[in-house]
Amino acid sequence: MALRLLKGVPVSSGISIGQAYLLGEDHYCLIPRQNITKELVSHEVERLEQAFDRALEELKKVRETIPVEQSEHVAILDVHIMILRDPKLRSTTKRYIEDMHLNAEWALEKGVAEIERKFEAIDDDYFRARAQELRLLTRRVKNQLVGNPEPVKPITSRVILLANNLSPADTAELDVSKIMAFATVQGGRTSHVAILARTLEIPAVVGVEGLLSSVEDGQIIIIDGLKGQIVVGPDDEELTKYTDLQYQFEHYRKEVMRHRDLPALTTDGHRVQAFANIELFEEVSAVFDYGAEGVGLYRTEYTYLNRSDLPSEEELFEEYRDLASILAPRKLIIRTLDAGGDKIGQGFEYLEEDNPALGLRAVRFCMRYQDIFKTQLRAILRAACLENVSLMFPMISGTSELRQAKGILEEVKSELRSGKIPFGEEMPVGIMMELPSAVMIADILAKEADFFAIGTNDLIQYSLGIDRTNRFVAHLYQPLHPALIRSLKCIVDAGRKQGIEVSMCGEMASDPYCLPILVGMGVHCLSLNPQSIPGIKKVLRSLSYKECAALLEEVLQSDSVTWNNKLIRETIFKKFPDELMFYSSMLEREEE
Ligand code: PEP
Ligand code: MG
Fold first, then answer.
1. CA-nearest residue, atom 6 of ligand 1
2. Ligand 1: does its nearest atom lie under 6 Å from the Cβ of 457?
3. In this structure, which ligand is nearest to the CA of 459?
4. Residues carrying an active site annotation
5. CATH number of 29-145
6. pLDDT digits over 225-280, tens only?
7. Where does CATH 3.20.20.60 sit in the chain?
8. What pTM does this model have?
């Protein structure tokens, strides 16, 4: 039954009113690489030929519907038809099926990548533009191959995007400038679509049951990213109410921006650093726009997604070096590849795993694919000639893993040395603290790492046993759970004892409710999505270290999340009515 009011998990604040755009299930599906038997080769070639023919027919039909006065559009379609007819594209792809026994989808990826490389190598804008068109066309053929004959609808105006799920690979392919808000059926507060929405400062609600059956494509809807609600087909009264709330929220956001360049300092002079988390090179401008003092987490996996090949050392080196030089003298902490889990690039071997989150992820993935790891390490080390670069390893579970990763780093260093290639000998090497096993031996790890960065998204997932992408357990995401508070204290104390810096780069760092506890604990640096920095600075600048430390003492004695939330709301958050109104998701969940 179609519902008028849908509920989900609010993951990015704000109100958006606009037209729904439904993204089909298979729209951006990732196709696994498969090796086919010799007997299936001719069948696979036939499948490929048919997909090409059907995509060609489809394009011709589209061309016929375009009015003649839109001559530019017609001309583009003619070029596309020409490319699809080009025997070179078909024969290159066919070769991958015949010679390497690959499935048609994967052969198509390989064939297109090969031609693309040739186009891109020609120093001419015309050929570069052709390479992009080729990629778009491949989608059309791929849709035919996977039995989804719907042509890809281009997003032409600003819309609210609704989907079952959006993986990092999907979101990286979208023209985000056209998206006003997101809502998905799957997902939780720290799933990647949530992080992206906060980075883009657009409202988002995830874990919405019945979303795709209750909303029609093109229908007007309201996304309430404050309360986690979606109003389908609003009446006049609802439109007025939400337009008003939208105005109030925008006003708050502008007001908060006044704090962006002020130091993150409590009323009694306790200093905390405010760094940014970024995942795309382009986000570097946000670091400056929102007053970040450095980049505490650069998630490097995005460079590996949405491409059929792997980035070369040179490409990675240029990316890291450019980022470091734009940021200098601000720090740049590059995290090595955290692939696996829901971050699977097409250039990686496809592995069927029952529990990807407990599988070959992050540093474990890098240990299996040491060539990929070493290429990245070489690039990071070379970029570290700029002294503001540090490296950190994700998902370290214990000393053996850390020593193994550092061992490979040393191998790469000696290779660079013997090749007389300059690199940063003194580059600091830290680790993400995001597994309960690492917490238990934080004192030991602190002796072998130059710094700690606490990844609460995973630490909560693995400590409380809740899949961060599973909507049915999203309500159990509880950063103020006594077990988590004790874990954090254990990490911070171990860091302090050893004299190393402890930062936090999980989403908890951008939650104003958790801030007093983190300040009281003595976390040195908070690394958060850039857009949350001014708001966090505003709250921090009205707190005193003394009151935060006292609050922490009380929280450490507490036996429940409910009590912790109550304590924080009643002692400190009375002072912040705006934050209560606009970031009340945690309290609401408690009241439910
Ligand atoms: C974390 O786990 O908290 C973190 C920052 O890393 P990611 O969200 O990329 O797993
Ligand atoms: Mg993590």
1. 455
2. yes
3. 1
4. 192, 505
5. 1.10.274.10
6. 988 899 999 999 999 999 999 999 898 888 889 989 999 999 999 999 999 999 88
7. 259-586
8. 0.72
